[in-house]
Amino acid sequence: MIVLRLLLLVFLQAFLLRDVSPLGEWTRPEWTLWALLLIPPQASSFLKLGLGFAMGLALDIALGSYGQHMVAGTVLGGLLPAIHRLFAPREGYEVSDHPILRDMGSSWLVGLTFTAALAYHLTLMLVSNWYWHLIPGALLPSLSSAAFTTLCCLVLHLMVYAPDRRKSST
Amino acid sequence: MRNLWLLLQRNAFTLAFIALMAVSLSVLLRNDGAARSSWFHQTGSVSYVIDQQRHGWSNYLRLAEQNAELAEENADLRSRLLSMDLAVEWQEDTVRHWTVRSGMLIKGPDGKPRSSSLATPGRDGGIETGMGVLSGGAAFGTVEEIGEAHCRILTLMHTGTSWSCRIGRLGPVASLGWDGVDMGLLQLRDVPRHVQAQRGDTVFSSGYDLRFPPDVIMGTVFDVERQSGADFMSVTVVPAADFTASRHLEFLVHQADSERTALSSTDLRP
């Protein structure tokens, strides 16, 4: 299921949502991150790392980029266990916890999504610019893009896991 | 082995992360020209700084060794300087009754082991058999035979003769000769093993063979070879006279030559 979701989002980002960027480089969303963030926090660290790498690889193939997404995806996959630990509740994650609004709450969801998006965008910015003198100019656009990616992920989240749907299902 | 396996197991996630990062970065560097050039630029700068630092440390650690090398070089340079100071052209020595007569070389040595050279003047110019011959203030040979207007010279480049020399002005006497192989190199034989000689030292005539006064430059030491177990060492000498381009000669005349010859050839009787 996770893999299918990942492939679907890669496809969507590469072929349909590629040009959804209202303010140019200031708002460049990474829709696929949402699939990665839906991995349960209790899942194995290796699974998170492997899926991060796979997501980057799939994005590079689909977008025709030269390994930037692979590096950024691997970094995010490697950091995701630490980010999950950082945002873990005091008593730890329950076995039945899912990384959705209903189980984890809005502050957890927004904080985790923004942190992950920030890590991803900053890495992407570093490997896209490479030269130190270009990085200060690219820092603010990556911060704003991370914020926009967070917004997009939350919109997707609300679309898929809408509160009213949750109520009807229960 | 077991400990290694446990260590790998404990850090499996870090190792996996490093491996995947290496794969990703290698793909990136292989395909992205800007990334590649920046990577080489950055790594080049870092390796330059590290290399400079390492070079500085190694220089600091090698100070004693460098000091020894410098001291050795300094000694070598001082020795050469001393040799240059000593290597002065021989001048006419009226105090010790040596005068010169000028002449001209008309046939020089041709590199064959026993070739003779011809020069002018001969008997009519006051030249006599056994006189020493200089070229440019350095030893060239000796008069072997004289004609009316010409003379035949036995040069240093002749395998049939030897010359009494010493390394430096105060070294032990040794015999200088040519082995007939390389025209640019003479051989100094019978040099005791204990003699301190090194490349660049000047070889002077001893004056014992009566053909040259003492301290005429014969050449400079080119190589010193001490063979294990031998009492003497072999010294190769570069002649000071240029046998391929000499033109003007000086014939050495001793004012009491006939008396010296007579005395040296008389048998002593008790």
CATH superfamily heading of the domain at 98-256 in chain B: Rod shape-determining protein MreC, domain 2
Average pLDDT taken over every residue of chain A? 84
Architecture of the domain at 98-256 in chain B in CATH?
A: Beta Barrel
SS field, number of helical segments of chain A: 8
Which overall shape of chain A is indicated by the principal axes computed on the Cα atoms?
globular
Q: What is the level 1 CATH name of the domain at 98-256 in chain B?
A: Mainly Beta
Poorly predicted spans of chain B: none
Mind telling me the C-alpha Rg of chain A?
16 Å
- What's the total number of strands of chain A? 0
Let me know the number of strands of chain B: 12
Largest sheet of chain A: none
Give me the strand/helix succession of chain B: HHHHEEEEEEEEEEEEH
What does this structure look like?
The complex is a heterodimer of chains A (170) and B (270). Chain A is an all-alpha fold and 170 residues long. Chain A has one domain (2-14, 32-91, 100-164). Chain A has eight helices and no strands. Chain A has helices at 2-15, 33-37, 45-63, 68-86, 101-104, 106-129, 135-160, 163-169. In chain A, helix 1 runs parallel beside helix 3 and helix 3 (45-63) packs antiparallel against helix 4 (68-86). Chain A is globular. The two termini of chain A are 22 Å apart. The model of chain A is unreliable at 166-170 (pLDDT under 50). With 270 residues, chain B is α+β, with helices and mostly antiparallel strands. Chain B has a domain at 98-256: Rod shape-determining protein MreC, domain 2 (Thrombin, subunit H), CATH 2.40.10.350. Chain B has five helices and twelve strands. Chain B has helices spanning 2-10, 12-31, 33-61, 63-86, 257-265, and strands spanning 98-107, 117-120, 132-135, 138-146, 151-155, 163-167, 173-177, 186-192, 202-205, 217-225, 232-239, 248-254. In chain B, the strands form two sheets. Chain B has a six-stranded antiparallel barrel. In chain B, strands 6-7-8-11-10-9 form a six-stranded antiparallel beta barrel. In chain B, strand 6 (163-167) and strand 7 (173-177) form a beta hairpin. In chain B, helix 2 packs across helix 3 (33-61). The radius of gyration of chain B is 33 Å and the shape is elongated. In chain B, 26% of the residues are buried. The chains are: A mainly alpha (170), B alpha+beta (270).
